[in-house]
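Ticket opened by: R.M.
Priority: normal
Category: complex prediction / small molecule

The reporter submitted a protein together with WTA and asked that the result be attached to this ticket for the collaborator who will pick it up next week. Submitted input follows.
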Amino acid sequence: MSEETTDETLANLLKEERRFEPPAAIAEHANVKAEAYERARRDPEGFWAEQAERLDWSQKWDRVLDWDDAPFAKWYVGGRLNAAYNCVDRHVEAGRGDRVAIHWVGEPVDSQGNADSRDITYAQLQDEVCRAANALTELGVRTGDRVAIYLPMIPEAVVAMLACARIGAPHTVVFGGFSADALASRLEDCQAKVVITSDGGYRRGAPSALKPAVDEARTKTSQNGHVVEKVVVVRRTGQDLGDGGWDDAVDVWWHDVVDSASPQHTPEAFDSEHPLYVMYTSGTTGKPKGILHTTGGYLTGAAYTHWAVFDLKPETDVYWCSADIGWVTGHSYLVYGPLANGATQVMYEGTPDSPERGRWWKIIQDYQVTIFYTAPTAIRSFMKQGREIPDKYDMSSLRILGSVGEPINPEAYVWYRHVIGGDRTPVVDTWWQTETGMIMISPLPGVTAGKPGSAMTSIPGVSAEVVNEAGEPVPNGSGGYLVLTQPWPAMLRTIWGDDERFRDTYWSRFAQEGFYFAGDGAKKDDDGDIWVLGRVDDVMNVSGHRLSTTEIESALVSHPKVAEAAVVGAKDADTGQAVCAFVILREDAGDGGDDIVKELRQHVRKEIGPIATPRQIMIVPELPKTRSGKIMRRLLRDVAENREVGDVTTLADSSVMDLISQGLDSGK
Ligand code: WTA
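Result attached by the on-call engineer:
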């Protein structure tokens, strides 16, 4: 990485000088104070031993960390516990059975404006988890068997995950928006014995079927010699399953097997390293990686970070994470973290704009949500719609806002804090990954003076660093690769069935130093605070200058006519790579005017410098995104390099690429 360019790009990022001090009320009563950093640094294992005490162990560990066989870690060696007991039963036993665990909000709304909703207390959750655990056992699921969960955002998804955890059957949740093919490859990879699904779910006001995809996936896997033994089907939409849509030898209704099962179930304590779940995530090759998380360390990490980063006060807070259960965020910060902490939370089934654009804000108002956790892509789309929509709702209950999934542009951060948080709320920009299992880099709401766009520093007990090619920490004011220098409890243990790929992907780049390579580029500013720049494969090299896609996107989004922007580096005969930008205009900007492209190029030039000026700016109606909201730059690169557009199967909406191409053909 060239010194000169990092300085140049950094200097531009650092034009952002707003700082937001923690509000006094939050700082004073914060769960975590500044001393925690030093305490953890002095004795990391002692610190993580203390954090593990927040769980109930039926047998305590003998050793906090066994790193002798690095990079294969063992945490809380010899300890035994049950994750579901920790998330449910112990709260009931402590007299908190009447506390609402989940305010579930369905998408459909009746003519009176009432949502199809359900409040589930911890006692009720215990009852359902026990029944489901008994039902799964009855269906032949044994400790160690894999169970796939392919469900919409309904309470049964949480119940199913916890029921699996309770009987020691690792679950693999496959996002309900994934295709039959994607489901089949995951079922095969982890050899799932049972699939839990539903007839369908509600999205954008209409029922959308799920069960047929399971049938199709089952046919595919059986052709490859893998047999799914049972499919448990939750009735959600009541839609017709069609001819041949039910196989008596395999399919059973959830309500038939779960409702009739006993609500008594004694949880077995499992080894701390017992597999809890496998979560598939995309890697650099076509084959998804099954990230394996185990029990004791993962639950400790999820619980501690949820409590620390969101400053959770379980008695008074109402927490809401908008992530789908099909992603790691839904695992750590909708299921395991919040429930281990005895939180009360909202779970919402549908889309943010159904039946109206203010749906999320109405939920915050109705349930008096105090902590809200979402993704920058959502925030930008709300910015695009304009503040009039959220302004109609009373969101004064909010006290902390969180962001996850990609770097948050300073503009989006400030809008989020200002419009949604009423300028009272700290914004915690949390960096982590499916692989890390828990938040690693984030401000702490009662300690950190936040900088818009920066994830700031690693949380207590975590050691993140930015290093150069040689694995040496870069000085403040420079950029490099983001690494984690010490093991942490919720770290992935391996890639399911592929230890070699696990080593290669994460541990070979800085093998000598023993660092975990995150695959992200980052910079340290003059204060040593970390700015995550995005995947290193998203970093462009233009005339030998390193440029971050995120940085240019932020510059574009800071223009008043721009709603959203995606930038890719396209091959260029002269400069190696050239900056190509795809821009969605704000609704009130109309078509932007004749000179819009010139205006935007000029703007980037001004914001970042001539080197960042896009070679091409294309005004488009939509951007191609995965179902988790990540922009698929690979496809945009195909457009920018005039290639045939590649595989679009993981797009949330596969027609988006057609829209983009049509717009470009008609010269818009
Ligand atoms: C990106 C999601 C910047 C990053 C929890 C990482 C972020 C990848 C942030 C992991 C953030 C996530 N700032 N970038 N706050 N959070 N990322 O596995 O590139 O879906 O490597 O986990 O998302 O995505 P994953």
